[in-house]
Design a protein that fits this description.
Length: 656
C-alpha cells in the first residue's frame, strides 16, 4: 500500500503544480477535491475487474488486485520489482519489446493480443492496451489487460472445426455445391474438373444450363418442389454437359437446407458415366444371351429340317445319273440346302453354339492368310498390318476364325465404298477383373485383335444393336443381318469378348480378346474326300422319323446293317440285346425323355469300350463337348451328308 500512497501523492503534486492558486482558501478547496478524486481513482483501480499495472524499465511497480489474481500471485508484493518478461510467453516477447519501444518513443501502440504465463506455468491469452505516463523525466507504462483465454479457445475450436470440415469438403471424392435461387452459391474444388468451368464462371451460371436438355425439366422441377418442402427423390441420375460439350452421367444426392437464413439445396454429385457404360454393356450381354438362346433353338430345329431335305435329295441322286431330267434340280436342292446350313451355322455362331473342334492357332498367320485374299480382290483397300512378335497361342476353330475375320472385312469394305485403309493389329495383353466384369469372361492372358477401317463410322444408336441377329442397315436383299451377329457369337463361343468404338465420319474399330493358351501350334491335317463303304452293324438313335429314314437308307446304300432306336431307353435296351454285333452307335444329343448325354452314360456303363458318334443340330460346344470329354469317339453336326458320315464312321472304326 505504501507504493500506492506514494503514487497518489505524486499525482496530487503534479495536479497542484498545474494550477496557479490565488488564495489559501482556493488551495484548500482544490486540495480537498484532488484528494477526493484521487481516492475515487484509487478505488476504481483497486476494484476494476481487469488487470491494471504500471511498469518502469520493464519491471512491475504496481499491479491491481485483479492483475494479482490473473497472474496467480499470492499478493502484490510477489509481483512488484519483477521483470514483466517473466510473465510474457516467448511467442509474444518480441511484439511486447517493440511496443514498449514505440511507447517510450512517443508513438501510439496498437491493441494487442498477448500470451501470458501465470506463476503456476499456465498459459493464458490477454488483450492488452498500454499508455505511457511521464513522471519526473521518466516514462512509466500503464497497462490495462483482460483475460480472453475462453474466447481464444472458442475461436481456436471454431477454427479447427472449420478447417476439419473444409478439409473434408475439399478432399471429398464427390462434387459438393449449394444451389440457391437456381444459382450455385458454394462449391468445392471437385466440382471444377467435373464441369470444366472456373469457380467464378459457375457462380455466375444458372445450374440448369449445365443439365442435358432432355433431363433439365425433371431436375429443375424436383429442385423447386424440394424448396417448397415437398417430398421428392433425394438420389437420382441425370446427364450434364461440361464446358467441352461432352455428355456424361452423374448421380445426385440432394437435401434441403438453410443457407444464410434462406432455403437452399445441398448437393453431392458423383460421376457415374463409367458405371452407366458397364450397366449398358451388361444389359446388352444379357439381351444377346436371351436372343442367342432363341436363335440356337431355331437353328437346331432348322438343321433337322435341312437334314431331311438334303438326305432325300441325296437318296434320289443315288439312283440317277446326270442325264436324268431331274438331276440338275436335285443338285440345286442340295446346293440350297448347303446355303441354308450356312445360314444356320451363322445363327449357331451368334448363339455361341457354333464352336467346332478347336486346335492351337497362331492368329498372326490366320490374319495374314485371310487378309491376303481380301488384298487380291479389293484393290481399292490398302491394308496396314501390325502383328505382335511371339504372339500367344489361342485354342480356336480355324474355320470360324477365318469366318469371323471375313465378316469384319466385309463390314469394313462396305463402310469404305470409295476405298480406304484397313488396319490389322494383334497384341498380347492381360485383362484385369475390372475390365472383364461386364463381359462374363475370366481375367488373365488374352490375344487382342483390332480391325480398324477409315470408313463412314457408326452412330451411337446403331452401335447398341449391330451385334443383334437380323439387324441390318442395308436395303432389302443386300444383307441378312447375321454377319456381325455371328462374329459376336464366335468370339463369345471361344470364351472371348468383343467391343466396338466408332464416331460418325471417323471410322470404326472392332476389338476382340481371345483367351491365350499354353499349347503349341501343330501342323495341318489332310482331309479325306471320298465315300467309304462298310459292312458292320450300326445302331442309329434319333427321335426324328425323317432323319431316321434318311440316315438309315443312306447307311444301307453304303453297305451297313442298321438297327434303329427312337429314344434313349429304347437304344439302351436294343444295345444290351445286340452288344456283341453292334460296332458303333450314332447318337442324337437332343432327345425328349432320356437325353443323349444320359443315354451315352448308360451305354458306356454297359460297354466301356463302346464306340459312339454324337450328332446334333447344335455343335460341339457346351453339352456336346462334355460328352466328348467323357470318352465319346466323335461328333458330326446336322445337316450332314452320307459322304461326311461315312468318313467319320471309317475314321473311328479304322483307328480303333
Amino acid at each position: 500500500m505504501d507504493n500506492q500512497n506514494q503514487l497518489i501523492e505524486k499525482r496530487v503534486e503534479i495536479f497542484q503544480k498545474s494550477f496557479k492558486m490565488e488564495s489559501i482558501e482556493e488551495k484548500i478547496r482544490i486540495s480537498k477535491e484532488s484528494i477526493w478524486n484521487e481516492e475515487r481513482y484509487r478505488r476504481l483501480v483497486e476494484f476494476f475487474p481487469e488487470m491494471i499495472a504500471l511498469h518502469h524499465k520493464e519491471k512491475y511497480v504496481y499491479v491491481n488486485p485483479a492483475g494479482v489474481k490473473i497472474l496467480r500471485a499470492a499478493a502484490q508484493e510477489e509481483l512488484i520489482g519483477r521483470s514483466i518478461f517473466e510473465f510474457i510467453h516467448p511467442d509474444s516477447i518480441e511484439a511486447v519489446k517493440e511496443r514498449i519501444k514505440q511507447l517510450e518513443g512517443g508513438k501510439d501502440a496498437p491493441l494487442l493480443e498477448e500470451k501470458f504465463i501465470q506463476l503456476d506455468g499456465t498459459v493464458v491469452y490477454m488483450e492488452v492496451a498500454a499508455t505511457p505516463i511521464h513522471y519526473q523525466g521518466e516514462v512509466l507504462i500503464e497497462v490495462v489487460a483482460r483475460d480472453i483465454t475462453d474466447r481464444k479457445r472458442a475461436e481456436d475450436g471454431l477454427r479447427h472445426s472449420e478447417e476439419k470440415y473444409r478439409t473434408l469438403v475439399e478432399n471429398a471424392n464427390e462434387a459438393i455445391f449449394i444451389v440457391q435461387d437456381e444459382k450455385i452459391k458454394f462449391l468445392n474444388q471437385k466440382a471444377l474438373p467435373l464441369t470444366g468451368y472456373t469457380a467464378q464462371e459457375l457462380s455466375e451460371t444458372p445450374f440448369k444450363t449445365l443439365i442435358h436438355p432432355d433431363d433439365r425439366n425433371m431436375v429443375v422441377d424436383r429442385y423447386k418442389r424440394r424448396m417448397k418442402g415437398e417430398r421428392v427423390p433425394n438420389v437420382y441420375s441425370f446427364r450434364i454437359i461440361n464446358r467441352r460439350e461432352e455428355e456424361f452421367w452423374v448421380q445426385i444426392n440432394s437435401n434441403a437446407i438453410l443457407w444464410e437464413g434462406r432455403p437452399a439445396s445441398l448437393n453431392f454429385l458423383r460421376d457415374i458415366t463409367q458405371e452407366k457404360k458397364l450397366e449398358a454393356q451388361l444389359r446388352q450381354a444379357q439381351k444377346m444371351e436371351a436372343i442367342g438362346t432363341l436363335a440356337g433353338g431355331i437353328a437346331h430345329d432348322f438343321n433337322n429340317l435341312l437334314m431331311g431335305i438334303q438326305g432325300y435329295a441325296s437318296l434320289m441322286l443315288f439312283d440317277i445319273d446326270a442325264s436324268h431330267p431331274h438331276y440338275e434340280n436335285l443338285k440345286m436342292i442340295e446346293e440350297q440346302t448347303r446355303n441354308g446350313a450356312s445360314l444356320t451355322s451363322q445363327l449357331l455362331g451368334f448363339a455361341r453354339k457354333g464352336k467346332y473342334e478347336v486346335e492351337p492357332l497362331d492368329l498372326n498367320d490366320v490374319l495374314q492368310q485371310s487378309s491376303i485374299l481380301l488384298e487380291r480382290t479389293k484393290k481399292e483397300i490398302n491394308i496396314s498390318r501390325r502383328y505382335q512378335k511371339e504372339i500367344w497361342t489361342v485354342e480356336a476353330n480355324k474355320g470360324q476364325m477365318e469366318q469371323m475375320l471375313l465378316n469384319l472385312y466385309v463390314n469394313a469394305c462396305q463402310a469404305m465404298p470409295g476405298g480406304g485403309t484397313l488396319y490389322l493389329e494383334t497384341k498380347n495383353i492381360t485383362l484385369g477383373p475390372d475390365y472383364i466384369k461386364p463381359f462374363h469372361v475370366r481375367h488373365g492372358h488374352y490375344v487382342k485383335i483390332s480391325v480398324t477401317d477409315t470408313g463412314v463410322g457408326i452412330d451411337k444408336e446403331m452401335q447398341q444393336r449391330i451385334f443383334e441377329p437380323f439387324f441390318t442397315t442395308k436395303e432389302m436383299g443386300r444383307g441378312t443381318g447375321l454377319g456381325l451377329a455371328s462374329v459376336y457369337g464366335i468370339v463369345k463361343g471361344h470364351g472371348g469378348s468383343i467391343n466396338v468404338y466408332s464416331e460418325k465420319g471417323h471410322g470404326t474399330t472392332f476389338t476382340i480378346y481371345l483367351p491365350a493358351s499354353d499349347m503349341e501350334v501343330k501342323g495341318k491335317k489332310d482331309q479325306a474326300g471320298t465315300i467309304f463303304q462298310g459292312s458292320e452293324t450300326l445302331l442309329l438313335v434319333d427321335d426324328e422319323n425323317v432323319i431316321i429314314n434318311v440316315v438309315e437308307k443312306s447307311l444301307q446304300l453304303s453297305g451297313y446293317k442298321v438297327l434303329v432306336a427312337r429314344g434313349g431307353e429304347e437304344a439302351v435296351a436294343i444295345y444290351r440285346e445286340n452288344a456283341d454285333r453292334i460296332a458303333l452307335v450314332i447318337l442324337d444329343m437332343i432327345m425328349p425323355g432320356t437325353s443323349g448325354s444320359k443315354t451315352y452314360d448308360l451305354l458306356k456303363k454297359t460297354n466301356p469300350d463302346i464306340k459312339v458318334i454324337l450328332s446334333s443340330g447344335y455343335s460341339i460346344d457346351g453339352e456336346a463337348s462334355q460328352i466328348i470329354a467323357r470318352g465319346c469317339n466323335g461328333f458330326i453336326q446336322k445337316p450332314f451328308g452320307i459322304k461326311e458320315l461315312s468318313q467319320k464312321i471309317r475314321e473311328i472304326m479304322d483307328n480303333s
